[in-house]
Specification:
With 119 residues, the protein is α/β, with parallel strands linked by helices. The chain has four helices and five strands, in the order ββαβαβαβα. The N and C termini lie far apart (40 Å).
Length: 119
């Protein structure tokens, strides 16, 4: 597997730090399973740090879209932060930027989740 996932919790938000490739196979399956498991266990606020993502394919993009939809359907929220230019450009090209809440930093992502939680 060409991807590592480090999970930690900060202020009630689970941060998943992804390092490596998000592509068809074990990488995509492991991220999908982790997000589903977290949400199913009641962790409704999830944010993905994509700073160390070196490659993403269409399956990886599809999994991210599916993860946002799944999280919202379960009453939660999923955000992305520190999105590399490579990933940003793919999302832009496929007109998917509006499907995601994207932030420059972990602090901004957490603040946005907190402000939504208050409403």
């Amino acid at each position: 597997m060409q991807l590592t996932i480090n999970a930690r919790e900060t202020q009630g938000v689970v941060i998943l730090e992804l390092n490596g490739r998000i592509q068809l196979g074990e990488e995509v399956d492991s991220v999908r399973k982790m997000i589903h498991d977290l949400v199913d266990q009641g962790h409704k606020q999830v944010s993905l740090n994509l700073a160390q993502v070196t490659r993403i394919d269409s399956t990886g993009i599809g999994m991210l879209v599916e993860a946002v939809i799944y999280t919202v359907k379960q009453g939660g929220q999923l955000t992305l932060f520190r999105v590399p230019r490579l990933v940003h450009n793919i999302l832009l090209t496929h007109r998917l930027l509006q499907a995601f809440d994207i932030y420059a930093s972990e602090e901004e992502a957490i603040a946005a989740l907190f402000s939504r939680r208050a409403h």
